Amino acid sequence: MSNHQDYPTEVNRWDVFEISLEGPAQGNPFLEQRLQGIFTGKNESVVTEGFYDGKGIYRIRFMPSFSGRYSFILKGSFLETTLSGRFVVNEAEAGNHGPVRTANTYHFSYEDGTAFHPVGTIAQGWHLKYDGDIAQSLQTLKSSGFNKVRFSIFPYHDEFNLDDPQYFPYEGTAMSTHVLTKENYKEYTGSSENNHFQYSRFNTEYFGHLETCIQELGKAGIEADLVLFHPYDRWGFDTMSEAENDQYLSYVMNRLAGYHNIWWSLADGWDADQNKSLQDWEHYADLLVRKDPYHHLRSIHNAREIYDCTRPWISHASIHIDDLYRSAEYVNAYRIRFHKPIIMDDLGSEGNLPYGWGSLSPEEMTRRFWETAVRGGYPGHSETYLKDPEHIWSMHGGALNGESWKRAVFLKQILNEVPGNGLAPVSGMDDCCEAVPEAEYCEPIKTQYLYYFGFLRPSYREFYIDDDTDYTAEIIDTYAMTIHRCGIFHGHFKIELPLQPYLAIRLRRATAEDYAYKEPEPIAEEQPKEAEPADTIQETEEIHETDELNHTEEMPLPQEEQTVEPAEEPAEETEPQEEAVPEADAFAETVQLPIEKDPEEVPADAEQDDPSASIKDELMDGAAEEDLDFSSIPEFLADDISAETEKTNSEEIEKEETAAEEEIAEDEDESEEDDELPEIVTGSYLAMHKDENTLKIPPIHFEKEDK
Q1: How many whole angstroms separate alpha carbon 254 and alpha carbon 258?
Q2: pLDDT tens-digit series, residues 219-231
Q3: Within this chain, do residues 420 and 468 fall inside the same structural domain, yes or no?
Q4: Is position 530 within any domain?
Q5: Residues of the chain with pLDDT under 70
Q6: Which residues lie below 8 Å from residue 404, measured CB to CB, with a gap of 6+?
Q7: What is the C-alpha separation between 59 and 78, in angstroms, rounded?
């Protein structure tokens, strides 16, 4: 047999270094041949195994974790002698930060230390459709902003998956689909009858296609959360023997572990699988750990019963919640119970399926995203609209038709702005979710505070951090995906809120950029304009307000933090307070987001709220319109009036100015006498959960079971 080896002389850090060899094709090379290698550099020595790729070609792969010079030694059952060679590992390409690891107990980071906040989606069979659909799915994923996608090696069988996929992982033929209907599909679930697959011979064309999909995801910065087993099957893949399952896991590890963007999900619905015991799952988990030399992230997903995620082989909890009313609310308890990162991969699904789990509104889906994140976990997205039953996103991929996916990606941007690795929940307020940076949990003063109100609609919120630290306050509309800057505050302060749900308040320690943002800019004098009739002015005001609301609602998904400059508050009646009153304390200023008004609702004091109309009525008072000059009245606000009008009303204006100054002075005195709000709790997280670090978790004892 030829000992010719084909391999590159250099590779980038965290990329795949591959050696190809020619070998025997007769018999069953998947079972009968073996290839092993040792790759050694200055900082690591890694043992890997190769795999058969069909047509007499064997491959072995290695992912270097460091730059520098490496050497390798190969041994194979079909090699006449030991092979060796050398290669150079260059620095990683831009955008490749290495595999994702757990960090700071509850969070994640790439191997190079860059923080990673997983906000992913489910598209279980996107890679199993036909080429046009796969290309569309891949384009959707790349443009969506998700950084993780969950999908399965094996196809799914259910009422929305009655057709066969383009590829199967094994050589052979499947049962006829002509007998399947939505009424009888359950009769074939878990069955292997009339299928003719060779469960010891892999379809190398399928695995080559799967590798291409994983590579494309990696180029886009998307992690591939790969499901290894599931019970939703009609092809016999769920009823394979233990030896066949072992061979399957070994082949997958040897072939795919070299990709930096791989996560392993041992099962989807482990507790719904009637063919595997708890002892079986632990056996497969042990094999998973031993066969993956790079220790990619590992989890196991549930249908109803959550697996014991304290098991040492589990890197993070991957949770499915079947409760219609409580889902994200469990995150706090899971953090304490498992002491690991919590990913709520399945919070339900936005869509219109005839089932509760698959018919959530986009608003409720968005609420669950935010509840999960502010409680210290990470949310997963799912979408199941019946617009096209053969192209349901979370089952088949294709295009995203819902609204919540945009809100999930907006949340990811908010998480990316958190100092450190992620958020930690605190219990300073009982009627909303509150979080601070995990890395600053024990610090008395944090750089950021985040409050989420969910479906509640408070009219305002009062805060006190300390007397000296300045904070930039922002109102985040989590559904409209806007960030409204309210100003810079310290001490006791109040933020007024519009009466609408799904809002959050973020307090950020003020930076030089924030102070620069607040510096007043000189206001250019407006050129006199010809006056418009009162009814025209009123109509213009309404159009202006409507345009502003439409701009907020249709605002594109921001790539960076979006802020809205505080709007100039309209003058009340004819009081030109801004010119007469001394400059107010900038830290006591709050600005309210625009609130959409019902066009049919007319306030009782509508005439008083129209300053331009009241001024005109007063000036007209029996005079003809052509006899008066309105050129000094601005188009929208009546802050200034003509010189003639000023003379006739100067005494009344002086009285109003004096009363306004006295009212402001009284407000300042009252604010100084207000009782201090309780300080935000700054105690240790472990002090709040004294038993967390000493949880007595009983080991799992296996009893012999008859299979």
Answers
A1: 8
A2: 999 999 999 999 9
A3: no
A4: no
A5: 1-4, 428, 518-707
A6: 350, 362, 365, 366, 369, 381, 383
A7: 13
